[in-house]
User: Which sequence fits this backbone?
């Protein structure tokens, strides 16, 4: 009896769990271009700012749609519509801690 219950539990978990290829960011990613790196000055330390200043501008990173909407001063709906028609892109008009963390990880290759 225990074997049957265990087998049923495994079958149920297997059916409800997403496949490895399906796991990801359901919001999607948006290419965010940072043309003015001074937008991130309040969110990075001096070493990070110096490293960022050594990169060629503009800097483009992939950010979750909610972060992109916030820093690009766009609605999530507008960016989602762009995604339907291809890659969504926007230019940062302000900085945020989330964007600074993404730039730090993707461009400066530094961990928190």
Assistant:
């Amino acid at each position: 009896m225990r074997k049957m219950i265990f087998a049923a539990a495994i079958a149920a978990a297997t059916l409800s769990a997403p496949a490895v290829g399906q796991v990801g960011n359901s919001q999607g990613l948006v290419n965010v271009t940072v043309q003015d790196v001074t937008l991130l000055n309040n969110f990075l330390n001096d070493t990070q700012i110096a490293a960022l200043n050594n990169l060629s501008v503009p800097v483009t990173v992939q950010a979750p749609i909610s972060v992109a909407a916030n820093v690009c001063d766009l609605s999530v709906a507008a960016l989602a519509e762009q995604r339907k028609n291809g890659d969504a892109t926007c230019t940062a008009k302000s900085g945020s801690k989330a964007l600074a963390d993404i730039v730090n990880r993707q461009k400066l290759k530094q961990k928190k």
Residues 6-26 have pLDDT under 50 and may be disordered. Residues 16 and 22 are 12 Å apart (CA to CA). Residues 25-106 form one domain. The first strand starts at residue 29 and ends at 34.
